[in-house]
Amino acid sequence: VQLVESGGGLVQPGGSLRLSCAASGFAFSKTTMKWVRQAPGKGFEWVASIIPGGYERYYADSVKGRFTISRDNAKNTLYLQMNGLKPEDTAMYYCATDPHRGQGTQVTVSS
Q1: Bond from prior residue into 40 cis (ω within 30 degrees of 0)
Q2: Which residues lie across from 80 on neighbouring strands?
Q3: Mean per-residue pLDDT for 91-96?
């Protein structure tokens, strides 16, 4: 199993970023995927999940209405569109399918 995230960076409050996760080594199209994050000095926080067909998506209350999880099964890629970013969204973001996760991509929201 290999999960490689990209798309993080530094953005001002209110800005947007789109994270991507390239997956390989398993049946991506048949696997529920999720994004989790870890802020400095804190534990992991679940952000969003999407079922294999993409028709059902679930979000943490802290990101609901601002973030959108999606997937392209033809490309074995998971996405997280993040709009209306806040300083409290600053964290390392990981794509994951238990028990595996990638190396993460850093998102920093600051003016």
Answers
A1: no
A2: 19, 69
A3: 98
Residues 6+ apart with CB under 8 A from 100: 1, 3
Tokens of 100: 């595996």
Which pLDDT tens digit goes with each residue over 22-61? 999 999 999 999 999 999 999 999 999 999 988 999 999 9
Nearest to 89 by CA among 57, 56, 48, 49: 48
Mean pLDDT, the chain, whole residue set: 97
On whether the CB atoms of residues 34 and 96 are closer than 8 A, the answer is yes
CB atoms within 10 A of CB 2: 11
CB-facing half-sphere around the CA of 2: CA atoms within 13 A: 4
Token output for 43: 């534990």
The owner of tokens 């209350």 is: 61
Residue 56: both structure tokens together: 């059902």
For residue 84, give both structure tokens. 């209306």
Q: What is the pLDDT of residue 86?
A: 98
